[in-house]
Amino acid sequence: xxxxxxxxxxxxxxxxxxxxxxxxxxxxxxxxxxxxxxxxxxxxxxxxxxxxxxxxxxxxxxxxxxxxxxxxxxxxxxxxxxxxxxxxxxxxxxxxxxxxxxxxxxxxxxxxxxxxxxxxxx
Length: 122
Fold this sequence. Notes:
Layout: E1 2-3, E2 7-25, E3 37-44, E4 49-55, E5 65-69, E6 75-86, E7 92-93, E8 97-104, H1 105-121
Antiparallel strand pairs: 1-7, 2-5, 2-6, 2-8, 3-4, 3-6
């Protein structure tokens, strides 16, 4: 959690990846959902490029786990989540759990080499 209705966090990833999605989760059960994030911008931290603007919707009847697809990402090792608003809590915003989904860049490079060799061998 962080103070106020907005803030940011930088995630250091274990390796260089192309991010394909992020999953945001708010704690359940919770009688007060106002501390959940509402609007979030996802950034590639190294080059400060915006990857996605998302709205996290939560109600007593909705799922607290929501996954957002990122259509295109450069290879990155740091991801920044900038929360620009929450659902009304004046004192703090809670990011309970964030999951980052992606493809390892090394795996992509290995697949490209194999594909290039296949083309030359044909």
